[in-house]
Amino acid sequence: MSSSEAGDTPVSYTFVTGDNAHEGRSHAIRAHWRQRRQRMEMQRREREEQEQRPPRAILPGVGSSSDNAGTSQRPPIPESQPHPREVFDEEAANSPDENPVDPPIPPSEIPSGILEGIPEQALSKMNIALGSSRLDPFDRFPVQLTPKHHRLLHHWLSTFAGMMFSMHTSTFNPMRDVWFPLDLSNAASFNAIMAHSAAHLARMQGFPVSNEAVRFKVEAVGIVQSWARDPTLALSDDTIAAILRLLSFERYWGSEVEWRIHHNGLLQIIEARGGITTLQSNWRLEIATFLVTLMTRPSWFDSSNQLREISQQSIATHPVLGHLGNLYKTRCLWLLSFMQDMRTFMGHSPEIYNHGLAHYTFIRDALLVVKSDLYLHDEDIQAEDDITERERIRLACLFYICVMLQGSVSQSDSVNPGPMDFHHSYSITSFDQCLARNYAQWQGSVQNLFQYLFHGAIAAQTPPSKLHYALDLTNILGSMSAEARRGVERCMLQILCQALMEARIILDYDWTPDSLLACVEGH
């Protein structure tokens, strides 16, 4: 049997009995696929018809009732209309050209009828959308960045990762809040910090000298010299910021002679401006400059520097520290600078260079007393606790030893140091001999060692400036976090024990100046 209607494909029927069930199933499957192919053919014809129709523009409603009524009377777009990308892909595939996809046409060259409605709204404001975004996140730097700049900048940020990317956003940290904004404020400062980064990277890679660092330093110095010849820029904030970074470079990678030249120039600029109070409009520059003016030599281990102002409580009348929070911020800046000084601690001592420290037996034993007490009572240091009396005593002993060892570097400036008088000569040998003469008074106890160093026989032979300076260092570090105190103490003990032990101890890389700078939050 069969039945048909006009325009329809005839439908055939087959009778199935129980004897030919397998044939019936095969017929049913063939009928199913035949009907599916017919539906797909019908859909293809509908798409072809729709492609031949002119496109309808979708216009937004203006707001008037008449326009809305007119819009509502427009016939809806059929659901089967293909996506524009599908139409474009099909046309591109059928194009006879070798490169069927033409470049985009500027909106100004497209006929107005094609850009009516939503397409016109989207394209007309596209330049505003793109103009507000920045494809290169580094395009606000004071110089045009090259791949070399990117590499050194990444290294510099990685070095101070803990301070730059601390999760405690409410906590002040010197790198993120002071130095990094100053480093990006002008081209000279930026080149100086690139020199700093290049020198540090070269040292980590085992190279004693970095030509790349020298080139960046020369570029920074050249910019500062050009500013110095310009009366409008010679005393500017940018000039001071650049000199501060050049001072940092000379402290760690240059010479004390160059450091003194930049330091004297900075003091002259401050005096010509009218004093440190003229920097109050730039609080970052004010506290950074104030801290550098406290230095007379390029190391915080040298007792000739002036730390008394920031080791005590601030006075309301102080021109810098009298402002709310400036004492704390200045101490944080000092902590960062001090941790960097640990890299070069005793590095320029001729006595250490020529003879080493392994044969100074009693200095080594004093350090072992401090180290043993630290490991016995390390669990007493809590993350949020203030400094304990035991910890204060231990830090004071450690800083006393460091100051006396650093004194040998200062003594090397004298051509004829004279006889071994401990009060006037700061040689390591004199220090070790004094410890040996009274060994029984301090051995085995950090409390006894503290009493001997600050109140015993050796204290009477020690210049008062050195005693006070060791206590000032203790007070400032004692005001910092437990994390910072613990890190500095362990780093200093590891540095000193490495130098004083006959056999090199295994280096704990968790307690090196670089690892400390990378993780400590700067407070």
Automatic annotation (TrEMBL):
Compositional bias (Polar residues): 1-17, 63-74
Composition bias type Basic and acidic residues, residue spans: 38-54
Pfam families given in the database record: Fungal_trans_2
Keywords for the protein's UniProt record, in alphabetical order: Nucleus
Compositional bias (Basic residues): 27-37
Keyword Nucleus: yes
Keyword Coiled coil: no
Protein name from the UniProt record: Transcription factor domain-containing protein
Superkingdom classification of source: Eukaryota
Region annotation (Disordered) ranges: 1-114
Organism (species): Xylaria multiplex
UniProt feature coiled coil, ranges: none
PANTHER family membership: SIGMA-70 REGION 2 FAMILY PROTEIN (PTHR37540:SF10), TRANSCRIPTION FACTOR (ACR-2), PUTATIVE-RELATED-RELATED (PTHR37540)
